[in-house]
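Fill in residues.
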């Protein structure tokens, strides 16, 4: 049921692109600021203490760094769609070129984020925060992705690729369940290693969003309030 809800959240968020016009992206930026602050806060308040609280945590920091730098590599192909920035080149016709690299990179990103969710039903309370954080982050991503796809393919094609993206979270969880059953006993501290990589991804995304929230180094009160609300939402769950 949880995976079905995650799938439907992406689909509904993508569909909302047609219902709520946001020509300048102001609403998306506020939502991104909120979700970015929440991801950063749960990383420091819940996820990092969890991964460092395990018995064998000597190499956990390396996996956090691996996730951080992996996200840098993914954004080279995704053009920054994870934090609301993406640009397509028009090749002289009415449609943009299909953003295959963007979609593929975004699917890999979502697949990796879905992997720790294999334990969400039976895991501790911190996984509920992880679930909320991923859900909040996927709402603006789905909207931006739909706005991108609709410029490149037909509406039916855009819905098809949105469905592919929506499937990545549950597929990541399913893959992790399979891997844990087969190699989890071989790799020490397997689940914390996976979570550490995702924490690194969160740290890169959230800090990038928050750094970009002050465009041209100008103070924006609404974005600042969104950031405070996102962090506050994580704090009251501590």
């Amino acid at each position: 049921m949880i995976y079905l809800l995650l799938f439907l959240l992406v689909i509904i968020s993508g569909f909302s692109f047609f219902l709520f016009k946001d020509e300048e992206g102001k609403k998306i930026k506020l939502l991104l600021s909120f979700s970015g602050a929440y991801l950063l806060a749960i990383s420091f308040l819940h996820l990092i203490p969890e991964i460092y609280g395990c018995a064998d945590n000597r190499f956990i920091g390396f996996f956090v760094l691996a996730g951080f730098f992996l996200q840098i590599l993914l954004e080279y192909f995704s053009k920054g769609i994870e934090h609301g920035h993406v640009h397509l080149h028009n090749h002289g016709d009415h449609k943009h070129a299909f953003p295959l690299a963007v979609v593929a990179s975004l699917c890999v990103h979502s697949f990796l984020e879905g992997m720790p969710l294999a334990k969400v039903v039976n895991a501790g309370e911190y996984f509920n925060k992880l679930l909320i954080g991923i859900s909040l982050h996927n709402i603006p991503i789905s909207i931006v992705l739909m706005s991108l796809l609709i410029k490149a393919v037909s509406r039916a094609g855009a819905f098809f690729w949105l469905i592919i993206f929506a499937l990545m979270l549950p597929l990541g969880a399913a893959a992790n369940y399979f891997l844990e059953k087969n190699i989890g006993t071989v790799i020490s501290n397997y689940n914390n290693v996976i979570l550490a990589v995702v924490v690194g991804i969160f740290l890169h995304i959230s800090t990038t969003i928050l750094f970009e929230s002050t465009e041209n180094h100008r103070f924006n009160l609404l974005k600042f309030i969104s950031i405070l609300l996102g962090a506050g939402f994580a704090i009251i769950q501590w």
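The chain is about 70% helix and 0% strand.
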